[in-house]
Amino acid sequence: MPNSSAEIEYLENKARIIRHLIVKMIAHAGSGHPGGSLSIADIIACLYFKVLRHNPKKLNWEDRDRFHLSKGHACPAWYAALAEAGYFPKDKLLTLRQLGSILQGHPDRCTPGVDVASGSLGQGLSVALGMALAGKLDKKAYRVYCIIGDGELQEGNIWEAAMAASHYKLDNLCAVVDYNNFQIDGKVSEVMDVSPLKEKWLAFGWNVLQIGGHSMEDICNAFEKAKEIKNKPTVIIAKTTKGKGVSFMENVVDFHGRAPKGREIEQALEETDISDLEG
Amino acid sequence: MADLIYSRDVYGKTLAALGRRHRDIVVFDADLSGSTRTSFFAREFPERFFNFGVAEQNMFAAAAGMASCGKVVFVSTFAMFATTRALDQVRNSICFDNFNVKIVATHAGITVGEDGASHQALEDVAFFRALPNMKIIVPACPNETAEVIEEIYSVPGPVYVRLGRSKTEILDRKYKFSLGKGFILRPGKDVAVVACGIMVKPALDAAEELAKKGINVYVVNMPTINPLDKDLLVSLSRKVKGFVTCEEHSIIGGLGSAVAEAVSEASPCLVKRVGVRCQFGQSGSPAELLEKYKLNSHAIVDSVHQILDEKNSP
Prior knowledge:
The complex is a heterodimer.
Chain A: H1 5-29, H2 34-39, H3 41-51, E1 66-69, H4 75-85, H5 124-137, E2 144-149, H6 156-167, E3 173-179, E4 182-183, E5 186-187, H7 188-192, H8 197-203, E6 207-212, H9 216-228, E7 234-239, H10 263-271
Parallel strand pairs in A: 1-2, 2-3, 3-7, 6-7
Antiparallel strand pairs in A: 4-5
Helix pairs in contact in A: 1-3, 1-4, 1-10, 3-4, 3-9, 5-6
Chain B: E1 4-6, H1 7-21, E2 25-29, H2 33-36, H3 39-44, E3 49-51, H4 56-67, E4 72-76, H5 79-85, H6 87-95, E5 101-105, H7 124-129, E6 135-137, H8 142-152, E7 159-162, E8 167-169, E9 183-186, E10 191-195, H9 200-212, E11 217-221, E12 224-226, H10 230-237, E13 242-250, H11 255-266, E14 270-276, H12 286-292, H13 297-312
Parallel strand pairs in B: 2-3, 2-4, 4-5, 5-7, 6-7, 10-11, 10-13, 13-14
Antiparallel strand pairs in B: 1-8, 6-12, 9-11
Helix pairs in contact in B: 1-8, 4-6, 9-13, 10-11
């Protein structure tokens, strides 16, 4: 089914809101990981406001689609989406990383909507695999979505999970690689090259889709196509820009793990302004 | 000679029986199902058994995902791989989330035998004892193993059960296993010998030998190392001159450490630890290795004498 332009615009606006909230909460917290949060804003907006069957009022609904953020450091994007979707009040976002907050520095089950903690890279695809196996076992129709980082692909655990997912023919599992080509120490291609990604995933028995990770149309279409594939898991390799949406953060490795400060905060808030959407 | 039985056989049979009663049990193994005996469950419930191949990190993190969907996941492999290979996954995906994952590892300790040091887990209890939410149980005999496996199904959160490779005797016990409880197998007065796993039998033998010389020691089976039965230890500490702990594990971080920590905080007294010094094992028959690493009744008797000598010297 083609996506209507109204729906695309709706989702793009959700992504804008998520970006704005990411900047706001990380700036307020004074620490965090803006680069990799901003790079997944469009994907997570599409998931939470179109793809996922979920109900913020029924956290333990057995038939809900599962989402797991394996690259846990990008949790500001997840928290923003959860708040925007109504899992908890938006004012909680400004408690990010504070003592006793429901919004920990890395995902924790104390956050409504977070089913499994993450943060130590490489484990999340396995966690999603466990959820997908449970779905098959219980003959449930739910699907499992998992966002993994490109630097994270350097973890051996990811490839153990990749092997098992195709072995068990988990067509209810869809992974998204946030291919922004930066990790803490520099370019992924220079620190430890993970390419060629398509060939690697194909060799592991996955259905592979390659898209531009900031084109809402591409993202929607990819998730739709993934649902049609039978007997194998799908990976969407999404080419993204680290820090997308804040000009001085884009492709700047320093903003992998540092909050904007002073004048930077003003500029970042200006560039992600959503006042036209409010009121 | 008493009958010798594999505790892992008992584990496999008990797990399959539990599987008949509880549809929410799912079993994971990493290419060792024949050895760990999860193959019994697999044969009966192939749809609820998942072999992960030689990929423990994936297996343990997937157990977390499966448990998040309401399953009780029994995960088995050798103790060496259950602890060190996937420790990050067990810590961050299982313990942190307090998921219902029951890790039942076999082939723990020096009695793995001929396979040698790379396969002899002597530090596993130490690693897991530092993890919040992790319960740790070391059954003393095949019958106790059956009771433990039955009980942990309904114990919430992660549990680690440590089993050996070799056949062992069924102990004559007058109690039923209960999590967090130590059991006095033999009353005494001079020293309390606290043992777990396969070291309970030599502890009883040592007590018998000492009794012939007029020395009466308590023998306590302490199958649960976490949570430890501190009340029992503290009450004993007020009656005896010291403790001897016995375990088929490093003296660092295991039962000996746990007992020493508990009594030193509440009611300090001497604690001598019988166990493997901080060293690696090697190939050999289980009997040879137990002798070589002084995991036997002689070492326990010597430690009791040391306590009495130190306490009796001016």
